[in-house]
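Technical appendix A lists one of the benchmark inputs used to test multi-chain prediction within the project. The record comprises two sequence entries:
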Amino acid sequence: MDLRFTPEEIAFREEVRTFFRTEIPAEIRAKVSEGRKLAREDYVTSQRILNDKGWAVPHWPVEHGGQSWTAVERYIFMEELMQAAVPLPLQFNCFMVGPVIATFGNDAQKQRFLPRIKSLEDWWCQGFSEPGAGSDLASLKTRAVREGDHYIVDGQKTWTTLGQYADWMFCLARTDPAAKKQAGISFLLIDMKSPGITVRPIITIDGRHEVNEVFLDNVKVPVENLVGEENKGWDYAKFLLANERTGIARIGMSKERIARIKRLARTTPAGAGTMWDDLDFRSRLASVEIELKALEITQMRVVAAQATRDPTKPDPASSILKIKGSELQQATTELLLELAGPNALPAHRDDAGHNDMDSLFAWADTAAPTYFNMRKVSIYGGSNEIQHNVIAKAILGL
Amino acid sequence: MNFDLSDEQSLLQDTVRRWAGATYPGLEQLAAARGEPLGFSEARWNELAELGLLALPFAEADGGFGGGPVEVLVVAEALGRALAPEPYFASVVLGGGALRLAASQAQKDALLPGLMDGSSRLAFAHSEAQARYDLQDVATTARPVEGGFRLDGRKSVVLNADAATMLVVSARTSGARRDDDGITLFLVPADAAGLTRAAYPTHDGGRAADVTLADVFVPEDAVLGAVGEALPVIERVVEGGIVALCAEAVGLMEALHELTVDYLKTRKQFGVAIGSFQALQHKAVDMFVALEQARSMALYATMMVEAEDAEERRVALSAAKAQINRSARMVGQTAVQLHGGIGMTMEYIGAHHFRRLATIELTFGDTPFHTRRVASETGLVSVD
């Protein structure tokens, strides 16, 4: 047993750490750290820099632009990326549709889509959830009917994150209405410029436009945009969701936020001193740090076990990472909000042109939206209650 | 990064688990051992000696097996699972830890053979009632006299002191009660004139004693380590103890979780196994998550206990103990709750795991104590 990184791994960590902190523009990283809204261009700029270095999709097969890194190196890479407040490479491109096309797509699809996925020339969004299909995803109703060399797709998707920027959508649609639930679903790639697509914003509890509803009305999709086999889409979706859960603990992000809270606490006045002098606040911060350290080791255990696991099958232990990781992310946003105190109340000062103020509390404007927004993390990616069901069944045998 | 045990460590784990499982298959055997005058059976203690476990953490040059923190983790976890009542923690981990860290070669030569063959045992007589968890808080005094020292004071809840042949006693040779400097460790025979032990059972099925020292004379060569400089040694002994407690707690939680999940699968109400109820399933999952978080921190403690940097070590061990404490409380309470009425009875073995977990929380620092320590230092996440 040896829980230390090897000298090579430490050198690798230094290399990626330096790269993130010198090559990704400080202004973009500051936006991530401070919880400010990123423009489409910010995502694109950051991902292009990674892509030019060959690091946009290190976990992909090497022939499609991946790196032959070990599981530990991939883990270090993602942790350092998050701690440097670099925007995550677009999840829908790099962790979802890319691996599905690389694994189940045909050669033409691979050549056409993969290079543009990793460079973010095409922005992808996810067409899975529907108003009636949330945790019970397989009950989705969107239909795709074959007519000659194309499908006609009708239905409604929802919670489409950053769909307002998307060029393409990967979409689950029912191709065999007679089949039972999971059977009869196909995985389609849909051009968002197709006639019949309407994107409607949903403003979430943080007051921002992050997610959308997407209506599909008689949308023509060429048959060549079917991934894999017709009616086998559920298998590909399961593969995709297993990928999604990798790194879902977001430990690096929580660490980054804790470091920021510690810095801000030292300059935030409270009583005769600062919030840093408030031992009760410090104790609660320490409690979160302790759980986070435990989760970091748990994540390393899962990473170490990956070496001997079938990578296409989800590891039920990753459900622990999802549950605890989301709880801790939320706990850090609560501490940030508490630190901001009454100064958290002003909304949209930056949008209203007040962002030139040199206030000690300029940072506090985003504390509440961050807190509000992060309520999502215990809901998405399989709600925490679903994760409990997964562990109860797959690990405890209940 | 590698979480696997070596072949030798796996073998050790198998050996201790098999011994503990066969020796304490249920409450009946446990109750018989606890009913012995010292709370365990000498014959069983000798079996541990024959298995080489009493010699495990000592250097090969001293006749031991040179085991490190991982070996301690493996043994403590396996003994913990079975609620084994032998004073392994008090004698080998704590007392033996003090010898390993501070004893002269002559002291090792005199004491280690008996300790390793089971014929003698140690107790770590450091804690005092007023000190709570502050290791520097020592009121017991040692006055230099002709040829040695005279000790006066009272040590509180000294684990397995009644089973010890020799006590490692901390006493103040200089300074005020809460000073860091001026503490000295002494080797005091259990039968020394003026030393009395008032022994009693503890709530976890173990035993301890309050030890009174009234003008107890010890010769100069009874000093363990340097005069007045014992605090860093005591801290490291306790850090080693925390690793063992963390591992023991993981063994206990694992056993308790298995018992609980088993119960959910077999206990029927409303015509079905109660494990089919989602409300209970989710509680069992929360126990599992708490157990795995604790397991991770036991491994972390094992890794960090030998770190060179004292502050880094302190923060890491405090973080580990705080996590273990929190998990222990959650797992223990939930196990009782999910068992319902039967979980409230002493006839049920899980109740004994629960009681031991509760006492582990109160040994070498509770959750608020260790959380405050993490908060008072740099903490675990550096600011950059």
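The radius of gyration of chain B is 21 Å. Residues 231-376 of chain B form a domain with the Butyryl-CoA Dehydrogenase, subunit A; domain 3 fold (CATH 1.20.140.10). Comparable benchmark entries are summarised in Table A2.
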